[in-house]
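User: Structure tokens for this complex, please. No commentary.
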Amino acid sequence: MRRFLTRRLLALVPVLLGVTFLSFLLLYVVPGDPVQAVAGERYDEAVLAELRAELHLDDPLLVRYGRFLGGLLRGDLGRSYVTREPVAERIAATFPNTLRLALAAMVVAVVLGLGLGIAAAARPGSPLDRAAMVLASTGISVPVFWLGMVLILFFSMRLRWLPPSGFGDGSIAHLVLPALTLGAGSAAMVARMTRSSLLEVLGQDYIRTARAKGLHPARVLLVHALRNALLPVVTVIGNDFGSYLSGSVLTEKIFAWPGLGRYTLEAVAKRDLPAIQGAVLVMALVFVGVNLLVDLTYAWIDPRTRRRPA
Amino acid sequence: MRRALGHGGFVAGAVLVLAFLAAALAGPLLPGPDPLAASPEHALRPPGPDHPLGTDAVGRDLAARVMAGARLSLLVGLLARLVSLAVGTAAGLLAGYQGGRTDAVIMRLADMTLAFPALLLLIAIVAAFGPSLVTLFLALGLLGWAPVARVLRSQVLALRDVDYVEAARALGAGRARILLRHVLPACGSTIMVLFSMGMATAIIAEGSLSFLGLGAQPPQPSWGTLIRDGFEYLRSAPWLTLIPGACMALAVLGFNLLGDALRDLLDPQGARGAAS
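Assistant:
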């Protein structure tokens, strides 16, 4: 396990360097003079001079990258072009809301996905199975932002059950629709994965043994089979964490949710490049961290995966 | 082919995809209203005999706009996908066949690309370069190369030492010739699956960015911009969002079903789970 951990952490180094370098480049590949692009119409010589000095535009690229990395290690993501506030502070203020939303989406994905997948695998080929899989195919195909609107239209405007948008007082009622919106696609993937891996496991000898012992079919399904079928499901959920972060941009816009996604969009609208850069970098780092956790969990549960892939 | 016609998913997917392609291609030939012609006196009409899908806030015919949107959304998806496939295939072939340092460099680049939540990186790129359809399909296409490269690399690894490739090498064929004439054709079915599934992803990505105002610019209608425009009128004119969104979902469903079915029917190894 320790060797696996070392190898996995070493493999992370080029990825982290690449991710930070790509994010760094974002600010410097902008066509034209970045300072002009930043200042735009608000043409103020004092601000321009300050920006020029802050960006160290005369230094070579790699020196500037080094400075960027140094700042990053100190938790400094630069200052917003628009408000002049430190970007890291705004990200620290908004990210917890996005995390809350992403975790709620994950709960939706696990509960709905496992439920549908188990129901489908219990009676393969039955109408219930078919209905569950049609629902899953639809769930994968429906665009996140459109699903959000359909849910608002139905549950908030027609039925008036739930608030259509906003964070409110942080109550669960405000969280339900955004979490459903964000988690639905992932729930569909989990349902498909649960079904197919359950069906695969159910064909194995130890399941036949468990059945032959006269165990209750539900016990065989939920205790013996599900345990082994859960492994690929863990991977799906981990991989989908990236789609929660991506989807949070859309979901937060539709539901006026005060998270990092909405902050990113506001920054995009104002072409506030340090803010965009910081937000994208933080989300990428979170995603890399989550993937590492998933790999480690996987290796811990199933020792076979610790071997180097062929 | 007979097996394909007996496969429910294949038939459903093919019908959906062909229907949208036909609508996209035939749109400008049909004697319908102009998708850009505004007539404020007919604003926000619900679906009815004059306007089968209703009209938007400035009285433009939604049916005509949805068809024009299909053209744009499918075209951007197609171009983006071709770019991804071209770059990804070249990278995957080279990495798998060459091995060693080339392989390591290409695969680390793929890891980096995949380390970003895709939509966020797209947003950042489009924000940096300014929104336009060309930026969009290039960014979309260039970001989509990594999963393609990974899948093809693993397939090439298996193909590298099969007898007929070995034979070509023994006959003195050069690397380019072996890759293009002997290895690439063997990857054909995998590429088809990757194409179909990737179209679904590309359509959603185009729609998402256009919805955020970072893709197609008004007055060009794409499904994403139609949904964006309709969002303001969700309460009073829900058809403006429901209909373009349903079209988008059906088109994506079509490509997903087709991809799943092709995978079942052609069974290329490794394409499983490489939809993005």
